[in-house]
Amino acid sequence: MMGKTVVIIGAGLGGLFTGAILAKEGLSVKVLEKNHAIGGGLQTFKRFGEDFDTGMHILGGMQEGGNVRHICRYLGIFDQIKLKDVDDDCTDKLYFSEDKTFYTIGKGREGFVTSLSKSFPEEKDNLYKYVDALFNLTDKVDLFNLRPSQGQLSLYAGSNEFLIPANAFIAQYTKNKRLQSVLAYMNPLYGGVKDKTPAYIHAIISSLYIKGASRFVDGSSHFADLLAKVITDNGGEIYVNDGVEGIEIKDKLVHCIKTKSGKVLKADYYISAIHPCTMFGLMDTKAFPKAYVDRLNSIPNAHSAFSLYIKVKDHSFAYINHYEYYMTQYDEIWNCSRDDRPWPLGFLFMTPPVSDQDAYARKVLVTAPMPYSLTLPWENTKVGCRGKNYEKWKKERAQELLKLIEELHPGFSKCIDKIESSSPLTIRDYYGVKEGSICGFSKDCNNIALSQVPVVTKIKNLFLTGQNNNLHGICGVPLTAINTCEAILGANYVINKINLCKG
Predict the structure, then answer these.
(1) Which terminal residue of the chain, N or C, has fewer Cβ atoms less than 10 Å from its own Cβ?
(2) Which of 212, 227, 242 is the last residue of a domain?
């Protein structure tokens, strides 16, 4: 593949991982990014003298033996990543407002079962069976385990049990309704929807974080910089502030890409790391079969999010080395994506670590799942031009969240120095993500073919990568990057290279 050229649209997590792998394997890589900064969900921004993460908050797969750890070792960057593991005895703390009950989640299989058994002692045996079932399911997925595969790499292994709805999968192991909701607490991380989200999605995410979670120290942007350095150190180029103006198709092949600055780029291969529906808008409407375009346009997107970025007063609020989940009612646990429910139904609360971290937090991040439909009155507006009503609406939503935070941490409002907020429209416009979805396309076990988008397309030299193909996040996107790269380099090529680097 030496001498072959690649142009990648989008320098988010998917574009950077895919570009880094291909550059390392000798291809000449050019990456185009419409924003002034690379990273997509890895971006940070500075407010009030602090750096705030925009999207990547929770990291799985970085623990010893983790799949993302292995991929990063193969790229030669793992030892440079600034990470801090959450506490072993409390990786997550859950709070249900309905009965004002806290639950603590411990690390590892034994820690998970032991911690929840304190609240549900009669369910201990069932909890062991449940955790075993999670890992048995994920053990069958070659791509997740970085095993060579005979067929197309996918997170879906084809077994019928993979397509049980996640809520039904949980219900197989406990009849306790309260425990069922507790076991589903991570579903906002993957856009979980009752009777739709496949069990394998729940199993992969749950098992990943049971093994242990990490966080970026001083923000996630340095991780994007490390991936970018792999590209540039191997002769690649990254262009920022230069989005794609058009993709020219001739004879069912991409002929060239034209950028807003006037560049005309030609390559052997082209990879779209942006939302597929956004990509369609960059080319002739007849480039793809109408049925294909209609199919992808019809796939529902997972929920978006409303976030608070809070600078706290010096030495006013203790640093918390785990994540905190606030939920309102047990029976609302699967309804975060619904716009016919009161908002917010819950949120994730965290104090991000810094390199000189002491006993006190410097900043707080609060992320609450939010349906995109709640922002429809301002759908046709742009960043900075949404009007006074939008700013008023944001302030009201912020106050609703702050009121609930007071229940979780009484007196928190007195610790606030300054506060900023963002909405689904912010995510949509900065990331170029349809409807501001934080998890990409919503997965539906009733129609798995609809929600599994292959990385290959009907245009032979155009490939897809990113969160809309297999799974989103710090684990799913790198795995899809492997899938995309192997569509170019050959089956199991990258997997075998990664396995050679395992230490």
Answers:
(1) C
(2) 212
